Amino acid sequence: MKQLTQTILKTASVILLLTFLISTGCQQQTDTNTVSTDFDMQKTKSFIDSINTKFTEELSNGDSVALGSHYWSDAELFFSHSEPIKGKEIISAWGSTIRMGLKDFTFTTTDITGDNNFLIETGVYDIKDKNKKLVDRGSYVVVWKQQNGEWKLYRDAGITSLPAAE
Fold it and tell me: Are strands 150-160 and 71-78 parallel, antiparallel or unpaired?
């Protein structure tokens, strides 16, 4: 069972990476050696940190609609041991998470890379129950997409580092 779970997680990670590569590779490139001078990585990191703080507060408050507003309509959410969750189903997924009593999340960004169109954020997370007991710990990869000057989540994958329950 553990080997099957690891295989599924590896497959999901490869699919996420391929989806990102295909979506960015299909865009017309004008000059691959040009770096936009208006892209500010420090400002971007501050923005992501502020959204992660807001996201944590919305989880704590049980506001799945506010959580869903951080995602584009064509976004996909990937939880460990679950099928991909798409579009408007994301609000329901966060609602289910909240109803299970999981409202204490901590997100720590470990790396950000990207450009004016897409950002890739990696990090680690902890999830605690209402009694502050650790329920899950893992890592995440988030692909942020900018449209019309607004950044939202395009792909969001959380990967547990705890062994599967038997």
Answer: parallel
Give the span between the Cα atoms of 125 and 112, in whole angstroms: 15
Domain boundaries, the chain: 2-21+40-160
Q: Looking at the domain that runs over 2-21+40-160, which CATH code has it been given?
A: 3.10.450.50
CB count within 10 Å of CB 21 equals 10
pLDDT, tens only, 137-156: 999 999 999 999 899 999 99
Residue type, position 141, single letter:
V
Residue-wise DSSP of 39-79: --HHHHHHHHHHHHHHHHHHHHHT-HHHHHTTEEEEEEEE-
Note the pTM of the prediction, 2 decimals.
0.72
Using alpha carbons, select from 68, 116, 110 the residue that is nearest to residue 92: 68
